[in-house]
Design a protein that fits this description.
Helix content is 35%, strand content 21%. By secondary structure, the protein is an alpha/beta fold. It folds into three domains: 88 residues, 3-Layer(aba) Sandwich (Rossmann fold); 209 residues, Mur-like, catalytic domain (UDP-N-acetylmuramoyl-L-alanine:D-glutamate ligase); 132 residues, Protein-Tyrosine Phosphatase, Chain A (Alpha-Beta Complex). The strands form four sheets. It has a six-stranded parallel beta sheet with strand order 7-8-6-9-10-11, with helices on one face. A six-stranded mixed beta sheet has the order 15-16-20-17-18-19, sandwiched between helices. α10 links the parallel β10 and β11. It is globular, with a radius of gyration of 22 Å. The chain starts with a strand and ends with a helix.
């Protein structure tokens, strides 16, 4: 009997373990941290052996294959030992894809993944397709394949998930943008991160689609270098693209034989330049799947957006509070600041991932009158922004950060939580950070 070891018992790991068990394999799950009660219950329900708070080498090193949580780096000692002895290490996505014939619509990029993934999922559901939402959002792909396999999956993929994909193939691959992120996981070499993102085109043929932002210089350079085999569908601001804006409309024209989709920009439910690009990518994916333009238009006009991404919270004494906790890198914060139309108090900080904050310098000077730093260690933020002459306040918890913003903001201002950083110094994840921010604002 084939033995599968799963490292990490979160959403993806638990789903992979259940799928492996359903396929008749011997399964063992190991997590160095605590396992959430809901996942413990699922593992017990399926009679899957597990351990928490440790990795027992004797129970792991004899695996035929290991499915690794994307949060575990390849440099972890046990992972290195497995690699040295030649044990195959897979992502949950790679493993799950073996057991389904579904169409895979896969989205990656440094920013905009969740919004674009959710928007495509909305379009496919409105069209009446049998579709699942997976990857970084929704239930794990493996759990859905095991329990309720769908005809289509819309999958948000991080670079970490792509790292251990080998035979997996996207029928439609979408690459939104590439800016420096997670460099602490890639030896502080940007090209290593770029290579990970481009794994989304791995195994594609001319029958598959590769949708990409044509104005990203990094993407253009890599396309010229590796020459993807898929059919290319560029989107951007100019009419030579198959999706673009003409200044009045968002236009999607993926197929010459189909009437182009035209939606007035003022009717788009998602605002801001970055969301126009996300909408183009989503519209292209839907057209390629032969979804009618009327359905795509309805989704673009009615889609409500995603939590923790430029999410309006409340107006308190004439000050708007906006939760952009999902901005876990500098480029994402850039997009948030670019969309601000009022004087801004910016709350930022957390676990630095090798960030270069100079990318937002111009927008900080233009839009912000106060910066609130929120983290266990704000030294790098103080060093970078302290010389700008902009008021800054250092705090080490969210409650103090919100109070400092409340005291600093004037009527008509916006208080924007857009941290630029990961959340793990003070919070469980970005969702926890966003929820705590919204609670603190509502308690003002």
């Amino acid at each position: 009997m084939k033995k599968i070891v799963v490292l990490g018992a979160g959403e993806s790991g638990t789903g992979a373990a259940i799928l492996a068990k359903e396929k008749g394999m011997e399964v063992f799950v190991s997590d160095m941290g605590e396992i959430a009660p809901m996942y413990q219950a699922l593992l017990d329900q399926h009679q899957i052996a597990w351990e928490a708070g440790q990795h027992t080498p004797s129970l792991i090193l004899d695996a035929d294959e290991v499915i690794k949580s994307p949060g575990i780096p390849l440099t972890a000692p046990l992972v290195k030992q497995l690699m040295e002895q030649g044990t195959p290490i897979l992502s949950e996505i790679e493993f799950a894809a073996r057991y389904t014939n579904a169409k895979m619509i896969c989205i990656t990029g440094s920013n905009g993944k969740t919004t674009t993934t959710s928007l495509i999922f909305d379009m496919l559901r409105r069209a009446g397709l049998d579709v699942g939402l997976a990857g970084n959002i929704g239930n794990s792909l493996a759990l859905q394949v095991a329990q309720e396999d769908h005809a289509y999956y819309v999958i948000e993929l991080s670079s970490f998930q792509l790292d251990n994909c080998y035979d997996f193939k996207a029928d439609i691959a979408i690459l939104l943008n590439i800016t420096p992120d997670h460099l602490d996981r890639y030896d502080h070499q940007f090209q290593n991160y770029v290579d990970a993102k481009f794994r989304i085109t791995r195994n594609q043929t001319s029958k598959d689609a590769f949708i990409y932002w044509s104005e990203d210089p990094v993407i253009n350079r890599e396309i010229a270098r590796i020459q993807p085999q898929a059919t290319l569908y560029p989107f951007g601001c100019h009419e030579q693209n198959v999706a673009y804006t003409d200044g009045i409309h968002l236009v999607v024209n993926s197929k010459p034989e189909v009437t182009p989709l035209r939606v007035p920009l003022e009717e788009l439910s998602l605002r801001g330049k970055h969301n126009r690009l996300n909408s183009m990518a989503a519209g292209l994916a839907a057209q390629i799947l032969n979804i009618h333009n009327d359905v795509i238009r309805e989704s673009l006009q009615q889609f409500a957006g995603v939590d923790h991404r430029l999410q309006y919270v409340a107006t308190v004494r004439g000050v708007r509070y906006v939760n952009d906790s999902k901005a876990t890198n500098v480029n994402s914060c850039w997009y948030a600041l670019e969309s601000m139309t009022s004087p801004t108090v910016l709350i930022l900080g957390g676990t630095d991932k090798g960030n270069d904050y100079s990318e937002i310098d111009a927008l900080v000077k233009e839009k912000c009158h106060t910066l609130i730093f929120m983290g266990k260690d704000n030294g790098k933020l103080i060093q970078h922004f302290g010389a700008m002459g902009i008021k800054h306040i250092s705090t080490d918890n969210l409650a103090d950060a919100v109070q400092a913003a409340y005291q600093s903001a004037n009527k008509g201002d916006t208080v924007l939580l857009s941290p630029c950083c990961a959340s793990f110094d003070l919070f469980k994840n970005y969702e926890d950070r966003g929820e705590q921010f919204m609670k603190a604002v509502r308690n003002l």
